[in-house]
Amino acid sequence: KTLVKIEPKALCGLNFYNGVLIRYVQPSFAYLGIEFEGMEFEFTYYRSRDPLMPRMYEDFFEEIEQIGLFKYGGLPHWGKNRNVAFINATEKYKDAALFLKMKQMFD
Questions:
Q1: How far apart are CA 71 and CA 54, in angstroms?
Q2: Residue 81's CB: how many other CB atoms inside 10 A?
Q3: Please, are residues 86 and 39 in contact by the beta-carbon 8 Å criterion?
Q4: What share of the chain is helix, strand, coil (3-state, %, to 5)?
Q5: What phi, psi does 24 have (nearest 5°)?
Q6: Are the C-beta atoms of residues 51 and 82 closer than 8 Å to each other?
Q7: pTM attached to this predicted model
Q8: CA dist 103 → 32, 45, 99, 106 (Å)
Q9: What pLDDT, in 10s, does the model give residues 10-39?
Q10: What is the pLDDT of residues 54-106, one digit of tens each?
């Protein structure tokens, strides 16, 4: 609500390039899998490969991402996030140590 008060138009630009995907997920037995039934929220927005190229309302999407990850304990998508999403990420998975052991063995 605070973000909307700052700039009401910031989250209204849902189109082909920006959006929110919500889906139900089932538990997984994978080492880094979801442990319970739940919902995933995926935010899609354009991010240029050029770090100097700004994107519209970039700070709003990044703030929502960080609220989901840090305030509400959300899990990062291992292939689609910036480095900040992985701060203490392995602490959110009960089998992270097993995963790292297997990773070390195969690497």
A1: 26
A2: 13
A3: no
A4: 35, 15, 50
A5: -85, 145
A6: no
A7: 0.70
A8: 12, 31, 6, 5
A9: 777 666 566 778 889 999 989 888 888 988
A10: 777 778 878 888 898 899 888 888 777 778 888 888 888 889 999 999 999 99
For residue 14, the SS3 value is coil
pLDDT value for 65: 84
Query: Which pLDDT score is estimated for 85?
Result: 85
Long-range pairs of 52-60 with CB within 8 A, sequence gap ≥ 24: 56/13, 57/7, 57/10, 57/11, 57/13, 60/3, 60/7, 60/10, 60/11
Provide the residue type at 61 as one letter: F
DSSP designation for 78: T
Structure tokens, 64: 């929502």
Tell me the one-letter amino acid at 71.
Answer: K
